[in-house]
Amino acid sequence: MNNTFQAPTIEYGQLAPLLLVFGAAVVGVLIEAFAPRYLRKSFQVPLTFVSLLGAFALILVQVFVSGVPTAPAAMGAVAVDGPSLFIWGVILILAAVSVLLITDDDHFVPQAAAVPGSAEEDDALAEGAAHTEVYPLVLFAVGGMLLFAASNDLLMMFVALEVMSLPLYLLCGLARRRRLLSQEASVKYFLLGAFSSGFFLYGMALIYGFAGTVDLAGISRALGTVSGQDPLLLIGTALLGVGLLFKIGAAPFQAWKPDVYQGAPTPITALMASGTLVAAFGALLRVFWVALGNLDWDWRPVMWGVAILTMVLGAILAITQTDIKRMLAYSSIAHAGFLLVGVIATGDARQNADALSGILFYLLVYGITTVGAFAVVTVVRDAGGEAGHLSRWAGLGKRAPALAGVFAFFLLAFAGIPLTSGFFGKYAVFAAAATGGALPLVIVGVVSSAVAAFFYVRVIVLMFFSEPAADGPTIAVPSMGTAAVVTVAAAATVVLGVFPEPVLRLADQAASTLFIR
Amino acid sequence: MTTHYLVLSALLFSIGAVGVLVRRNAIVVFMCVELMLNACNLAFVTFARQHGNLDGQIIAFFVMVVAAAEVVVGLAIIVTIFRTRRSASVDDANLLKY
């Protein structure tokens, strides 16, 4: 027995983006504790932006100056490889853009502890109180997303999952208007999220029982050497899959998504719909490709079923929706299904790299368009807040042509019309899947895209070809942040749709090394 | 014999999962989730014994910390909804649907 203690090595350079975001979150909590109330926002907002953009700069330094690492960091717990760095970059961009929306105080409750409709709430409103805790919470959630996508062992992944989710549960309940809906969304998200992480954890326990380790590479090695423990492995894989598929909102675990997206404050919905989806796909790919890659004969048929169900259910249920945010939630479910098609398209290393590159590009374009679409939703207002009901959007094209035009453009990008970024995203994933032998899935995908295009176009027709209601919604003058978000998202959707080459090449490069073990 | 502990852990996990599905009070639902997490802990510790390494026992500590954090967040959310509606029943929270 070797009794000398060996200190673990931590590659601080590789982990710097993570440490910066978490460090800023902790400083944000200290600001909440010590800074006077009227100064807090002017500290928190710059801190949040500096840390997100600083982390992004650190990633650029790592990619272009110090080179992409070839071995996992932190004793094998975190893998900072090409796909991780790409996903980190995407998450940080999406988070920074969402924070621009969040800086608009108008979306958040002045005092969450005050009962809706009570005298305390009126006092808090009159006093101009605001929850600046939102910023550190967002930073913790973003840090969790970064770690979730890069964790190379299941324990780290579980902790990251919770660090990502717990702040989001709270943020969901902080909407300024329609507070009952918001609180209900928060409770539902929390209970279902905790339930699903219980499944994830039990799956992890069974896989630990099978392999004797929770290291993804170790599990992969154990697949070839351990025999006679297959029930543990198979049940463990299934439970782990439930936990991860819940986070991406794949059917049959999609029920939380429309409720939570509708009830949460719209900037937080934007953050969840983009960042969480990206991070969860990173983690899902890592578990199923790195740890369970040699088990693909067992999980692939189930994934086929899940992908088909998710695409079809998302596209069909979206048609029946009358609320714009719920419709976007179902559209997000359908997109999760399209992305799952890419996850299934495994094969040899070259095939895997193609599929991975397609998924990475899709995640970027879908995320940025989603944030833009939710930003538009925040400015179409009624007396009681955002005009959620679709009938209120009738004739918007006549009242606010520019805004309706941009929104129509985002919807076309979701539908995957050529010359928008959505087209190349879908094309990259479906092409990789078709060459990977998942042709039936691609056919289902294309058909459900067509169904989905129907409800996107229906909204466009509603906005441009019906008469505006006499008491239609008002178009709030967008704050600087909101206007910037819409502009950035629209520009990205155009540029990535017309000239996707550089970013596609970047995704190819990131994917070419695949996941390191 | 570690099998008994594994069976017990599976039983506890199932009781927790069924409880989440059938109980109506958000606090009780939440307690059932905690029961599931504790069932996982038991499985981790048992497997650690079986494999003769300490990973499982360390993981159990992490799970406890995470569960404690989850209690803080969860109770805050449940208390908020109770103060608003004077009820913690998950059946009463039914404004968001379809």
Account of the 3D structure:
The complex is a heterodimer of chains A (517) and B (98). Chain A is mostly helical and 517 residues long. Chain A has one domain. Chain A is built from 20 helices and 3 strands. Chain A starts with 11 loop residues before the first helix and ends in a 5-residue tail after the last helix. Chain B is mainly alpha-helical. Chain B has helices at 3-22, 26-51, 55-85. Chain B starts with a helix and ends in a 13-residue tail after the last helix. The interface between A and B is large, with 43 and 47 residues.
Features:
heterodimer, A: 517 residues, mainly alpha, three-stranded antiparallel sheet, B: mainly alpha, 3 helices
Instruction: Return the string of H and E elements of chain A.
Output: HHHHHHHHHHHHHHEEHHHHEHH
> Which whole number gives the mean pLDDT of chain A?
91
Biggest interface reads: A-B, 43 and 47 residues
Give the helix/strand class of chain A. mainly alpha
* Global mean pLDDT of chain B: 92
User: Which descriptor suits the 3D outline of chain B?
Assistant: elongated
Order of helices and strands of chain B: HHH
Which stretches of chain B are low in confidence, meaning pLDDT under 50 for 5 or more residues running? none
Give the quaternary arrangement of the chains.
heterodimer
C-alpha-based Rg of chain B, rounded: 16 Å
Helix content of chain A: over 70%
- How far apart the termini of chain B lie comes to 49 Å
Task: Please give the number of β-strands of chain A.
Answer: 3
Outline the low-pLDDT stretches of chain A. none
Compact overview of the structure:
Chain A contains 20 helices and three strands. Chain A is mainly α and 517 residues long.
